[in-house]
Amino acid sequence: MIKVIVLICSLASVPNSKDCNGVNAIDMVEAPPATDSRSCVFGAMTYVAGRPNSYPDDYYLKVLCQSGPKSPIG
Between the CA of residue 71 and those of 1, 66, 67, 68, 74, what are the distances in Å? Predict the structure, then answer.
């Protein structure tokens, strides 16, 4: 499973999406886990679009897809 973290940044404060991070993001949400990188990004956008928010008009998303460490056996 892939952990899906979505950073919401504003173009006014962070014009370059490469610079968007957990420190300067206006919000950070965890979307439901995904099975692959394509569903990670699509699922994240769908999840954020479906939530009520008060983000500014110039907001954009930066999706982080993190495949976590495998749980140890035993």
Answer: 11, 14, 12, 9, 9
Q: Are strands 27-34 and 2-10 parallel, antiparallel or unpaired?
A: antiparallel
Average pLDDT by stretches of 10, the chain with 74 residues: 95 96 96 94 94 94 84 52
Distances (CA, A) of 18 to 26, 31, 61: 15, 20, 11
